[in-house]
Specification:
elongated, six-stranded antiparallel beta sheet, mainly beta, 4 helices
């Protein structure tokens, strides 16, 4: 056995917050006399542009944790773990990483979209496709009669029905209604995901192909975003002989359109064998990528719908611009100041060179008494902020510059609104 093993006492996440802060905990178990090098425990993650390594911190005993940073929402996170023993050998989980990794989706908001425990029928599901040719074992929605290959009970805690391949008779033979001489297909209804930033399908399935003399068949799960191009998302070649959980991160395979579907194909294509499959308890988890105000709605969707104001057109609701400090709101009216300001300037910078000095006083006097160019904007010459531009402003500015007089009124010394 390997010197080190890895366990996840808090489980592994299917979804990680793109806003950062999620912590993953791993327990490293010493299985031989070789001792762990604690400083070597690391998490390695990638969103598609190479792996980044995080040193995991010991949180007591043999537990180590890593806190994830802010990552791009909508991406898929691939990750794995490594640790060394004092003699230098490195062990990984999964053991075949980085060729095989754990996967999680990155999202800011997760909500449940479609879900079906199949206890109320499945009228929107379709049995069969143009090239199906199985002679028995066609998909059926019912309470299964258990055999050595087929479940006796559905997966749901309440109810009894699920989709499975062929209903035999009580006491019938093992192969009475298993999949024979071809394939049978079960296709979901359309999932409308165009208003999301991605989604994940979670379901439970059963598959058996090891009760006959041949074990060369497989159970295939495919997804599409247009009803034409189907992509394999999962292929099961060995029997589960029990209900197994399956998670499909759709953004790995398809775009979030309003024509997303999933289908399940059970086949008996080689030598005759006993093939049974079943599915139950399917849930579509929908992802949104920005929810700065924590109201459960995607920021972009709110702005587009007009339910959130975005006066500066930066794609962020105004209230979030203000709460994050990105925008000022001096009068506390929940509208960023820049949206209420006709022009930005520095008070006293009459020649608009972004500094305030004696040349600005000269510029203002030239305008007032010698037909010089007008200050731009005109408000910049109203140094004392009384609403008028006259000799008093030039005197005010010169006093500030040379006799420690009061500074020009806001906006000063930085660019801003009056």
């Amino acid at each position: 056995q390997p010197a080190l093993a890895f366990e996840f006492p808090l489980g592994r996440p299917d979804v990680v917050s793109s806003e950062g802060g999620d912590t993953i905990t791993v327990e490293v178990i010493e299985q031989t006399l070789d001792a762990l090098l604690p400083s070597s425990v690391s998490m390695h993650y990638s969103t598609g542009s190479g792996y980044t390594s995080l040193a995991m911190q010991n949180s007591g005993g043999m537990l180590f944790e890593a806190t994830l940073p802010v990552l791009q929402c909508g991406d898929v996170l691939e990750y794995y773990f490594t640790a060394q023993i004092v003699t230098g050998s490195t062990f990984a989980e999964p053991s075949a990483s980085p060729d095989e990794t754990f996967i999680a989706s990155l999202a800011a908001v997760v909500s449940v979209g479609d879900e079906d425990d199949f206890e109320s029928g499945g009228p929107d599901w379709t049995v069969g496709s143009g090239d199906d040719d199985a002679t028995t074992g066609v998909w059926v929605l019912d309470d299964p009669i258990g055999t050595a290959a087929q479940p006796e009970d559905d997966h749901s805690s309440i109810g009894s029905e699920c989709w499975f391949t062929g209903q035999g008779s009580v006491g019938g033979s093992l192969g009475e209604e298993d999949v024979d001489s071809g394939k049978t297909t079960l296709t979901s209804p359309l999932y409308e995901l165009a208003d999301t930033d991605g989604a994940m399908i979670e379901l439970w399935y059963w598959y058996s192909n090891d009760q006959g003399s041949s074990f060369d068949d497989s159970f295939v799960v495919e997804v599409t975003d247009n009803g034409t191009d189907w992509i394999v998302a999962h292929s099961q070649s060995g029997s589960t002989a029990q209900w197994e959980r399956l998670v499909i991160h759709l953004q790995q395979f398809v775009s979030p359109t309003n024509a997303v579907q999933i289908r399940f194909i059970a086949s008996d294509l080689g030598a005759g064998s006993i093939v049974e499959a079943a599915i139950d308890d399917l849930v579509v988890h929908e992802f949104l990528c920005a929810d700065c105000n924590g109201n459960g709605l995607d920021d972009t969707a709110e702005v587009l719908a007009g339910t959130a104001l975005d006066c500066n057109a930066n794609g962020i609701p105004d209230e979030c611009d203000i709460s994050s400090g990105l925008s000022a709101d001096v009068d506390s009216d929940l509208t960023p100041d820049e949206c209420q300001c006709p022009v930005f300037f520095i008070r006293g910078d009459t020649n608009d060179d972004e500094s305030v000095d004696v040349s600005d006083a000269v510029y203002a006097l030239e305008y007032m008494f010698n037909s010089g160019p007008e200050p731009m904007p005109s408000e910049s010459a109203d140094v004392n902020g009384d609403g008028d531009t006259n000799i008093a402003d030039a005197v005010y500015l010169l006093a500030y510059l040379f006799t420690s007089g009061p500074e020009p009124v806001a906006p000063f010394p930085n660019v801003g609104c009056p």
